[in-house]
Structure formats: structure tokens, C-alpha cells
Amino acid sequence: MYSSQFDANSAFNGGGFTSSQSTDHGSSPAKGRETYGLVPATVKQISEASDSGDDKSNFVINGVDVANVTLIGMVSKKAERVTDVSFTIDDGTGQIHCNRWPVTNFDELTFHFVECIHFQVQNSRTKQGDATTQSHSVTPSTNTASRDGSNGYQSTPPNHFSGQFSVEGLKGFDQMVLDYLQQPSNFGREKGVHRDELSQKLKLPMEKIIESIRTLEEEGMIYSTIDEFHFKSTTSV
Q1: Residue 208: what are its φ and ψ, rounded to 5°?
Q2: What letter would DSSP give residue 224?
Q3: What's the whole-model pTM score?
Q4: Staple 87 to which of 78, 94, 125, 208, CB 3.0 to 4.6 Å?
């Protein structure tokens, strides 16, 4: 047990393996705080910690930027599941609920960060295209098809999927294909949607479907599944 005479400040200010170098404090609160990689803490301190307000750490304990902490306590309420293990740590100052997620394939870490980047990009596009999405109607797609009516195929039907995710800069046919693939019923299909179905349902010639598929693949919005004829959207509605 730690003695009640333990002085956290003296532990952080030189001696042992801690750095004795001072930090140049600026005028801002964030610059005026010390930063440590691993800090011993109690559950009570964690529960009372404040947000650091910057991107360099997660929270602040007693004026110290903290990213990682060590806890010592009694483990209870342990529940093992296939995906994770949950438990509660009680150190006498309080209780905290924890989850341990085992990593069996380290490719999951790479995938996680790629997924975070993808979500951030898509979220940014969604915010920028809100106005475009709201104003997007059947007119652009219908007019585009009508202008090409001389090619021998009929005008495109009304776009019933215009309320879905719209990407600024996509042509009418490209957006129609993306909207169809993003429908919940189609997004949930493991094998994806065959390009013949896209041509039949959207009443577009196959060359237009192939052209739109190529564009959407290059933009990273769709991908092929079991073969080069089945496709799925990378994002759902």
C-alpha cells in the first residue's frame, strides 16, 4: 500500500527514472502542463479527471497531461465473451468498468486505422455535400438521359434514391448506380449486385453501367465481390 505521505509532485520532479528537466511553460494552459507517458492513478482520480482540451493527451490529473495510467485493485464482475472480457476494478477509492479486447490478428489494427481515415473522409464529404444532397432531385438524372435519348434507349425513370448519400461531382448515371447499390436491401447482399441487374432496374444500356462502375471504383465508392460482374457499395445509407 502507498503511504499517505506519498508526494506525487516530488515523484514527478526528478529522482529515480523520471526526468528532472523542466518544461518551458507558455502562456496557454496546455503549454503550462507537464506531460507524462505512464502515471500511477486511482479510480477516484480518473473519475474526477478533466478533458485536456488538446490533441496530445486524453485527460488531465492534478494538472498533468495523462495518456496512460497504472491501476492496482481487486477485479470483480468478470464476464468472458467470445469477442472481449469485461470486468470491474475496485481500488478502495471507487470502481471502474473495463473491457479487454484481445487482438488475434494484428491486421485488425491496420484495418481499424484505415477505417477511421475512411470514415473521416466520408463524414467530411457528407457535411460538405449536405446542401447538394437536399437539392438533389430527379431533374438532373432525367434531363441527362433525355439529352441522350437519340441513342435509342428510353429516358431514365424517376430517381427514388435521391435522398441517399450524394457525392459532389458525380454524373447523373454514376449517382444512380451508387444510390441503387446503397439501398439497404442491396447493401446487405453478400454477393453484391450483378451489373445486368443494374442495367435492368435502372433501364440504362450496359455501356453506361460499365462506365459508371469504372468511375465509382476509381473513386473508391464501390468494389467487385465474387467476380468482375458483382459489385457492392463501400458505405451504406
Answers
A1: -70, -40
A2: E
A3: 0.34
A4: 78
Are the CB atoms for 193 and 232 separated by under 8 Å? yes
Q: Name the phi and psi angles at 82, rounded to 5.
A: -65, -40
Q: Is the separation of the CB atoms in 192 and 236 below 8 Å? A: no
What's the chain's Rg over C-alpha atoms?
28
Looking at residue 89, what is its pLDDT? 92
Grid coordinates representing 97?
Answer: 468498468
Are 166 and 141 a contacting pair, CB within 8 Å?
A: no
- Measure the CA–CA gap between 115 and 24, rounded to whole angstroms: 37
* pLDDT given at position 90: 93
Q: Which helix (H) or strand (E) holds 70?
A: strand 64-70
The Cα 161–Cα 29 span in angstroms is 49
Question: For 131-144, b where at least 16 C-beta lie within 10 A, e where not — what string?
Answer: eeeeebeeebbbeb
Among the listed residues 77, 6, 90, the one whose alpha carbon sits nearest the alpha carbon of residue 44? 90
Residue 216 burial (C-beta neighbours within 10 Å; 0-12, 13-18, 19+): buried
Q: How many CA atoms lie within 13 A of 36 on its CB side?
A: 25
What count of residues does the chain have? 237
Among 207, 201, 140, residue whose Cα is nearest residue 168: 140
Assess contact for 203 and 160: CB atoms under 8 A. Answer: no
Residue 76: per-residue pLDDT? 92
Tell me the CA end-to-end span of the chain in Å, nearest whole number.
Answer: 54
